[in-house]
Amino acid sequence: MKFTAKHGLVLAALLTATFAFTSSVTAKNQYRLAAVVQYKLEPDRDDGTRAVACTFCHINSTGAAPWNPFGLNLRETFRKESSLQPAEARIKAALYKVLVKKLDSDGDGYNDALEIYAGTLPGNALSTPKRDVDELEKAFTAAGGYAQFKAPETK
Ligand SMILES: [Ca+2]
């Protein structure tokens, strides 16, 4: 078979699609990794498997739309950050600002920051802390409250 200009166009389209998909996945992974650091979540394991899945914010394990209730609130907060900033700065600011809103995204009785402090999922009402709210709030405040989820200073 001869390699024609038409084949070249098909190949170029395939490469473009592959690159677009890969860069979109990488962008989302960048947000996931920012959340892992800032929310002091379990880091990815040495064998490369993820301790924190995309489902922390998304419905599907592959990320992208749709988002769970916490992911939707985070996304809205992210969108209010100036698009003149790099995405990294926007996600870091949004990860903190969404918690200070003291929302209970999944409606399970625990606000999002308390859930993250307790290691449960703020976007899944089936995942709830074991301690009662008052007790958890005291421990959370003693541990530094909302300030503990601010983005670490970059040098
Ligand atoms: Ca909750």
Please characterize this protein's 3D structure.
- The chain is mainly alpha-helical and 155 residues long.
- The chain contains 5 helices and no strands.
- Helix 1 (5-38) crosses helix 3 (87-100).
- The structure holds calcium ion.
What's a quick, concise take on this entry?
The protein is mainly alpha-helical and 155 residues long. It has helices at 5-38, 69-80, 87-100, 112-118, 133-142.
From the helix content, strand content and strand pairing, which structural class follows? Answer: mainly alpha
H/E series: HHHHH
Question: What small molecules accompany the polymer chains?
Answer: calcium ion
How much of the sequence is in beta strands?
under 5%
Our count of domains comes out at 1
Could you describe the largest sheet, including whether it forms a barrel?
none
Molecular shape: elongated
User: What is the CA-atom radius of gyration, in angstroms?
Assistant: 19 Å
Q: Fraction of residues in helices?
A: 40-55%
- The poorly predicted ranges are none
Quick tags:
elongated, 155 residues, binds calcium ion, 50% helix, mainly alpha
Ordered list of secondary-structure elements with their pairings:
Layout: H1 5-38, H2 69-80, H3 87-100, H4 112-118, H5 133-142
Bound molecules: calcium ion.
